Here is the input.
Amino acid sequence: MRIALPIGAVGVAAAVAAALMTTSAGAATALPTPTVKPAVTTVSQAELTKRVAGGVAGDDTAGETTSKSAQSSSTSSGSVDPKIIGGSTTTISSAPWMAQLWYYDDNGTTSDTSDDIGFFCGGSVVTPTKILTAAHCAKGYDWAKNGAIVTGTTTLPDENGNTNGTVTGVVRQWTHPSYSARTIDNDIAVLTLSSPVKATPIRMTTSTDTTSYKAGTSAKVYGWGRTSSTTQDISETLKTATLPIQSDTTCGNYYSADFIKGHMVCAGNPATGSDTGTTSACNGDSGGPLVVSGRIVGVVSWGVTDCVEKGAYSVFSKVSTYLGAAYAQVDDANMSYTDAKADLFVRNKSTGVAYEKDSKGTSFGARQSLGDWGGVNLVTQTDLNRDSVQDFVFRQSSTGDVYWLRYVWSTETWTEKKMFSGWKTRTRIITPGDLTGDYKPDLVSVDSAGKAWLYPSNGDGTFAARKQIGTGTGWNSYNMVRGKGDFNGDGKADLIARNKSTGAIYLYKGTGNASSPFSARVKVRTWSNTTYNAFDAVGDVTGDGKADFLARTPGGTLYLYKGTGKATSEIFATRISVGTDFKQYDIFG
Here is the structure.
C-alpha cells in the first residue's frame, strides 16, 4: 500500500475595429462603478486560529489511500507515504515563499472528537494569493470551510494555534482534474487565499525546462515534516535538504509501475534503510517544493513508509508537466470570486447597462446588472494587482483615457485609477496576462499606425517603459485581437487574431520574454466576417485549466470554443451554443 506524504501535526480588446472606434452620441461621461461586489465570506482571525489549533492537535494523514501498491518486491514490505530526514534547519528568510497548510474539521460534532479530521501539509506562495501544493492535500477537503494558511514564519504554531506568522483563509481550491488517489498521479493543486500575503512568491519552472531534470542536478526540498523514521515527531522549525535529481530509468527500476514517467520525478541518494546516511522528504513535507535555481520543479508527493527503506527515493510531481494547468489557476480571477471559472462581461448597446454572466462551465447563468457603463467604448478583464479579484480596464469614450477599475477589500468599494491619457486612436487594447515571465499581468495596445506595444506591468496599475512587439506595422490588418490566458498549454499567455480580409485566425504563442513576447504566428482556423462579428477571451470558462474562446454570429448566437491546449487547427473543441440573444450587446469584455 502507498500513501501520499502529509502528516498529522502531532508528529481588453474590442470586438471589431469599428466598435473600438465608435463613440455613442450623448454618451455619459461619468465613470462606471459596478453595482455588485465579489461574493466571499470573511473568516475571523479567531476562527482561523481555532482551525490551526485543531490541525496541530490532529493526527490524520491527508489524502490517505488504502489501495494496494504494484511495487517491486524490494518495497513491498511497506506502504508508500509522504518528511525531511537529514538535511539542516533553515529560516523563512531563506525560503520566504514557504507556507504551512492547516486543516481541521470537527464534522459538526463539537463534543465528539472521534470523527475530527486534522492534518498538516506544506505549500509554496506562487503569487500573493496563490498556494501551490499537492492534490492529495486538497482533494476531498473543504479548505474554504476548514482550512488556514500560515506564512512568514520559520516555526510551527503552538498547541493553541498561536503563530508569529500571518494566518489567512482560503476562498477556493483547484485540484488537477485527473488526480488519482489510488496512484497518486497528477498530484498537484492550487489554493486561493482570501487576501494577499506579503510573503515573497517563488515562480514555477517553465514547461520547456529539461535542464533542471537532468540526473545529478542539485535540488533543494523544504518542509516541517518528520525528522526520523522511528518517531512521528515533526520539525518545529523549517528544514531543507539537498537532493540529486535521479533519472526516470533509476526511479522506474525501483518503483516499477508506481513511478509514472513524465508526471513524476524522483530525487535523493538511495535510502540506507535507517536514518543514518539517509536524506529524504517525509511525512508532513507533502505539498512542499523541490527547488532548482530558484524555481519550483517538483511538489512533494509520495515515498516509502517511514521514508528510509533501503534503496528508496523521494517522489515529486513534475511541475513542468503541469505548468499550463497550474498557470490557469494563477490567472483565474473571475467576477463571481466563488470558483475558478472565467465569467462574462457584456454591455447592452441601447441602454449602456453592463451585465455580469457567471460561468457554469459550459453555459452562463442569469445576468446581473453592473450599472451604467454608457460612457465607455472598451472593457477588458484582468487582475493587475494579483489579488485574485477580477479587475476591469476600460476606455472612456469622450477622452480616450484608460482606467483601471478594481475592488478594494478593506473598504468594500470599487475604485478607479487613470493609467493612460488620450488613447482614442488606439485600435486595440488587450490584457492577455503575464507576457514577461514575472507572473504580473501585462497590457498590449495597437496604435493607429498598426504598431503593437507591450506595457510590462508593475503589479499596481503602473507599467514599465513600453516595448514595441516586433518591428512591423501590420497589426491593423486584424479586425480582432483577443487574449486572456494560455491557449496552447505551456503556461504562457497568448493572443488570438483574425485577418480582416481573409478571416484567417492566428495564434500568437507567448514566450515569457519581454524583449520578444510572441513567437511566429500559427494559423489555426478560418472564420469569415459573416460567420462571426464579435469575439471575447475571458480565460478558462470551463475550469479545466485551458483558456477558452467566445465568438458571436451576426444573428446573435454566442458560441463557446473550449480550449484543447493544442497549437494547431485543433486548438478548440467543437463549439457549444451558450445563448441566442447576444445581438443586443456591443461590448464583450
